[in-house]
Amino acid sequence: MIILGLNAYHADSSAAIFKDGTLIAATEEERFRRIKHWAGFPSEAIKFCLREAGVSLAEVDYVCIGRDPKAKFWKKVLFVLKNIGRRNSLLADRLKNTKKVSSLESELAALSGLTESDIKPKIVQVEHHRSHLASTFFASPFEEAAILSIDGSGDFSTTMIAVGKGNQIQVLDSIDFPVSAGLFYTAFTQYLGFPHYGDEYKVMGLAPYGNPVYVEGVRRVLNFRSDGLFDWDDDYFAPTTQIKLDYSTHVPVISTLYGEKMVKTFGPPRLEGEALTQKHKDLAASVQKVCEELILHILNHLQAKTGLKNICLAGGVAQNSVANGKILEKTKFKNLYIPSAGHDAGISMGSALYTYHHILKYPRCEAIFSAYTGSRFSNEEIEKILKANNIQYQRLTDDELYDKITDKLIEPGVVGWFSGRAEFGPRALGARSILADPRNSKAKDLLNSKIKRRESFRPFAPSILKEYVDEYFEKVEDVPFMEKVFPIRTEKREIIPAVTHVDGTGRLQTVSKEVSPRYHALIERFRQKTGVPILLNTSFNENEPIVNTPQEALDCFLRTQMDMLVLENCVIER
Predict the structure, then answer these.
(1) Average pLDDT, whole number, for the chain?
(2) Distance from first CA to last CA of the chain, Å, rounded?
């Protein structure tokens, strides 16, 4: 059975394809369109998935979209009636988007040559948060688990708690729009002068530079309920009916979310580009701390309610790696799973998994611990591109390659590394990465100023061989998708300053030989030469989506100050 899953007409549009429950390919549309968080119909991602699976759309049994306009229908009606006399840009935007979802058959028909009547019976609509729940539970190794989906909003829900058992998911409760952990964090992100869709990670990166002195004030924005869920004080936020979610240019734009009470309470908002003061850093620290408290409040009640030891997370807020690193320590859960695409791109995977397991009741498949489901290119294809660009290169064996790269890193140098299939999700995991020596105290500033061209406070991640985690970190867990931040052992912080954040933590990726054989071998060669089983890893891009093709990698190399580019076994040096 072939199932194609989509996240369409929404930010981080994507596609994923499964054969008999096994993931064949998954990718985000932004990788092809070269626009971050691209929103719309993911035609290029669909074509890629069909090619990888070796099938046509005619051979696909179901096309699942992680959006169900009928979900919470009467609650939506009540919301409209309550606000019938008010200017309502939100309603107008949602109606436009609903029409786009209803045009899915025509889009697929144009893409495939099939008729709309051929396609209509294949389409399954799966509620946004149920898709998130499925993307994490059905991909996890757990037979039974509690599940939390928590993000901005989708299908009129912002948070959903559930229990998964075998091939079924039982929803326990949910929170309705507009009350939202994601929108709470986004409102403060905008207030702190980061206005673009997806900028929340900047607040998380800024937080360790501050002290959480505004926690009491920030806590008053939310109401932690005794049932384990939450409400908020509307006055801190813009009127709900004036919230605007605009995808018309395929670049997601969200209107200003914070309201007058936030400005009265915390003072004038920071303008974009304005210097960051200690107050801004302290407020970022306070917002991050309250967000962590909220997540732990929900999870501790969920654990008490279910008595389960396994927890699965998904949704945009589940990408908060600092909070994730504290969950097992501060709850009674013993095991945690978060997928590589916990954000909205993972909706494509989730809608397909929900259909296959929960609706069609097929048994569970193997857990997913690899994010390498995207584009790939042979050495021969790469050589053809290099020759067309008149680029001098060497083609080396793997053994020669690892020696040459590690020598360059130790020199010190910065290396662009393009190897195997691209990752599904927002983080580079050793397939489309820029690498540096974590021992080099100047590497962070060099990368931020001359290659990534981004804010100086943004940290870089340590990719560490799985078997050495306990030597460098205070906690030992599998972190295959760079989804948790842990404290680095005090005595190791001076050894790896380039990947140690200002508060002594690091957002690690545990690299296993089974999942990432070439990346593991490269780090192992570096360990043999330096004694350090870690490489600094950041995404291969420069204020753009992560590179998807050899040509994009070459272009990025040529316009930045990287010292070496590795495309599979082909090496280019300056």
Answers:
(1) 95
(2) 49
